[in-house]
Design goal:
The chain has two helices and nine strands; from the N terminus they run βββββααββββ. With about 180 residues, the chain is mainly β. It has two domains: about 5-55, no CATH class; about 75-175. Strands 6-7-8-9 form a four-stranded antiparallel sheet, covered by helices on one side. Strands 1-4-5 form a three-stranded antiparallel sheet, with no helix packed on it. Strand 4 and strand 5 form a beta hairpin.
Length: about 180
Amino acid sequence: MTPPRRIPLRVYGMSGIDVNAYLLPGVNVDFEEIEFRNVGLAVLTAAPAASANPLELNFYLSGPRHDGAVPPCDWPGALHIITSRFAEKERKFWASSLTIVHFDKVREIAYRPWAVNTIPRRFCTALAFVSDGLKHPVHYSIGEDTGMAGSMYGVEWCVAGLDRNWAYAPNCKMARP
């Protein structure tokens, strides 16, 4: 049996030109339910991973340094952000004058519910008294370094029944852990 014909290829990969790459013409390839007859098959070699070059060695990427100090659910800053952004959203996008008048039954439902090295978040729920006289559950999270440019606490929130653009649909489920 004669060895199959190898046609050299010039292929450029992540590590430069692959000098060992070649084409095998007229190959029959059989998988479980798929067959390819008389096709050209490119054979490439995988180079081992290379170490960092001297320029890359000068940069130390330490990763996140979270201390896990997240304010409690009744932190006035978080409740103020929810109140003001809710009023702004209703006014700007829904032509509504609804506002949150008061919060009640504020409580934590989870703290850092995911893996250890994820961004620390405190998940909370409360009952919001809205200016139309109705009460709506509010689900929110306070995250470390998730605010403006990663420099302060960030608050993600959803008022059940008033998530008009379905950002946290269904029924604010995506705002909970």
